[in-house]
Amino acid sequence: MARVFVGVLAGAVNAQVLTAVKALIDFIYFAQLQSHTSRTLDALQASLDTFHDYKDVFVKSGIREHFNIPKLHALQHYVDGIRRLGSADGYNTESPERLHIDFAKKAYRASNRRDYTEQMALWLQRQEAIALRVSYLQWFALQGPPTADKSDDDSDDEPSAIASSHCRSPAAENVPVAYLQVTHGANDFIPALTVFLKEHFTSSPVTPSQYDRFDIFNQISVHAARNRYLSDQPRKSRIRAIAAVPAKGRKSGSPAIFDTALVIEHPSQYVPSSGIAGLRPAQIRVIFKLPPQFGNYSHPLAYIEWFTPLNRPDPTTDMFTTHRSSRNRRRNAAVISVEHIVCACHLMGKCGATIDRKWTSFNVLDEAAMFYVNPYIHVDTFTRQKI
Questions:
Q1: Segment Disordered: which positions (predicted)?
Q2: 242 and 220 Cβ atoms separated by less than 8 Å
Q3: Do 66 and 169 belong together in one domain?
Q4: How many domains does the chain have?
């Protein structure tokens, strides 16, 4: 619920309530960081101070009589505790209960209920040995094949500005352009692909036409760039471009899914480790492979529809707003390489005091006029927009 709370409340409550709620949610997200700096700790404390400055609005509204709550009092000690003991991601009040399940309940069930103490200890010893073995195998699998030593001139201090992505085998082959235009909504597929080919294959004499056919993918996995505030564990997001499936017989159909993502528009401004400079939201309509007659390209391509650039965040919600970008009274479309897709992003329809009941998760991108770029959908997205 915290992922969408601010976007849902925006416009439905007054500014004081929204400020108090946003401050508390910001505190929750800053507290989740696995690596802190003086800047993030200052932001953590500032979020808590803002909540205390505005929390009286709930008392005045009759929602609460007081805030003498032990858990809220505990928040005052977070910054000092992190400075002395490290980040809070290693602490969880549910640990004793969880360990009781693993070390007592499951171990007892594995015994024959007679002289069970010794059997439970032996069972736990074996479980720990298996866990160590699995952990080693997972670590070994991540090492990969050995690579040659780099020269002294090579440097890996700065990661590549291009995202790492992966597509599986095509979901459909030899798909005509008319199908992409009707089922994927790729109305300007041919003009957009023509512009891409002119930029990347200047000497190619072949131009795309309505009679060409393409292999298309349903989804792509995008590997996230390293985030200094999170762990080094690999993270990836799934970007889908799936056409609607009509109902057939007794089998129900499924609606279309065209995900939105942050795309590199200006590579010179984009910094993989933080920030959203150089990025722009877009909806992914088609993921396809370039046919060989146009040239060889190492990555699949994507037909996208741009949203407007992210300039200044909304002063109340502190979230960026955007809307559909148009050109010549048509949606502003382009063909890009999938390596320029950085990560999935969540666009929430901007509404007032009431939410349009016609909106669903499948049609809101077409029904709403304005959108919030929701930073709370993931901690990685939060740090990019807030720090």
A1: 147-168
A2: no
A3: no
A4: 2
| This prediction's pTM | 0.79
Q: Which domain holds residue 309?
A: 164-246+254-386
- Of 90, 124, 152, the residue that ends a domain is 90
How does pLDDT run across 253-311, given as a tens digit for each residue?
Answer: 999 999 999 999 999 999 887 789 999 999 999 999 999 999 899 899 999 999 999 98
pLDDT in tens, 37-82: 999 999 999 999 999 999 999 999 999 899 999 889 999 999 999 9
Q: Answer whether residue 217 is part of any domain.
A: yes
DSSP letters, 35-76, are S--HHHHHHHHHHHHHHHHHTHHHHHTTS-S----HHHHHGG
Whether residue 115 lies inside any domain: the answer is no
H/E element holding 138? helix 116-143
pLDDT score, position 256? 95
State how far the alpha carbon of 142 is from the alpha carbons of 37, 137, 146, 229, 380, in Å. 29, 9, 11, 21, 22
Closest CA to 192 of 298, 304, 267: 304
The pLDDT, as a whole number, for residue 184 is 97
Running DSSP on this structure, what letter comes out for residue 165?
Answer: E
- Cα distance between residue 290 and residue 331, in whole Å: 23
| DSSP label at residue 113 | S
Q: What does the pLDDT average to over 317-326? A: 95
Same domain as 183, residue 313: yes
Strands 346-349, 333-337: pairing kind: unpaired
pLDDT at 228: 87
| Same domain (yes/no): 225, 86 | no
**206 to each of 32, 256, 294, how far by Cα in Å?**
53, 32, 6
Please identify, among 62, 90, 118, the residue that sits at the C-terminal boundary of a domain: 90
One-letter amino acid at 74 equals A
Distances (CA, A) of 202 to 21, 206, 291, 308, 337: 53, 10, 16, 29, 16
Does any domain span residue 349? yes
